[in-house]
Amino acid sequence: MTVLESLPCSLPTGTLPADAFATADTIGAEFASKLSTLSTASLAKDAIWRDMFAVTGSLRTFYGADACLDKWQHYVGRAQPGSFNYKPGSGKVVAIGPTATWLECSYTFQAEAKPKRDCLAILSLVYDNEKGAWVIWVARTVLDQLSGHPNVDQYDVPEKKAEGAADQDQTEFECVVIGAGQAGLSVAGRLAAMGVSYVLLERNKAVGDNWRSRYESTKRKFSYLTIACMKLTWRLNSTHHPRVMYVGSCSSSPGRVLTSPEAHLPFDRTFPDSYPDYLPKNDLATGYSDWAKKYNIVRTPLLFHQSWTSYLPCATEYLARHLTAVRSMASGQPIVATRCRPRG
User: How far is CA 108 from the centre of its chain?
Assistant: First the structure.
């Protein structure tokens, strides 16, 4: 049995009320107030809550109505979420096959506890025939922005040195980022957008070398998400409501069906549509390198090291308040460099 199969969750069964299309906005708006005073009456028995730094400050998933409510009430006192607002027009019915259907609605809210943050909530609602009411099947809460700080999704490279930019001889920073792969570049880009000073450390000599050094036939499925024997279609003709999203089987061969946002670094598309579905290693390296140059991400010479725990002798010692060691999701447990030590 896989980990996915062992999780205590399942797709909803049953049909939605006939007026779900017409009343999607009304139903969604009602739950804005229910989130402020959440109770088991608003939760399905097998409810799931997934939080991404918005309320718990971490990546957490809770299963079951009792656990979701207990943890929600626990973390509400710390995060102080409030000002829940429904996003008009976001309500839509999602259907997988003839029986698995739900209503999906989006919200904005703020967590008032420091650091104050702007967050998003996405609720998947199902109709509970026993309760005779709509209930939350899946709740997702996501950190969007830090209130009062620059937008991390927008960055215009200044003509002159940015507030967070580093001089060649600068040795003190707010943050040290270890690893200049996709994750490390993304972190550095977000820091640059917020004006946070940083230094980016990498074991290779240049951005993109982590792909250039691989064997020649290495490719990565990046520019599009291909779903085998599945299709995602918005039914917009006269026989289907425009707010219904159907996901169903098909007999056609796999193809380009959905742009993959994971393909790109922040701020714009790193790989344009002209790139192939399976990117050769040199295209990947070029895309990362060009992006880093465009946004002036590597502001000091990269500090080369032979491994995560064995550094080459270096005359420069960097001082920073924060350390970020980034690795891909498939890399396993990160190993923190042994030569990092607190000041003093």
Answer: 16
The predicted-structure confidence for 10-66, as pLDDT tens digits, reads as follows: 888 878 888 887 889 999 999 999 998 899 999 999 999 999 999 999 999 999 999
Domain spans, the chain? 10-146, 172-216+264-331, 224-259
Contact 42, 36 (CB under 8 A): no
- Which numeric CATH code is attached to 10-146? 3.10.450.50
Structure-block tokens of residue 287: 């895309």
Cα–Cα nearest to 146, from 183, 95, 111: 111
Buried-state track 177-194, b at ≥16 Cβ within 10 A, e below 16: bbbbbbbbbbbbbbbbbb
- The first and second tokens of residue 156, run together, are 């215009």
What is the distance between the alpha carbons of residues 92 and 276, in angstroms, rounded to a whole number? 32
13 token code pair:
């069964």
Residue pLDDT, tens place only, 87-144: 999 999 888 877 788 999 999 999 999 999 999 999 999 999 888 999 999 999 999 9
| Pairwise CA distance, residues 261 & 52, whole Å | 17
The CATH number given to 172-216+264-331 is 3.50.50.60
Taking the model in full, what pTM does it have? 0.72
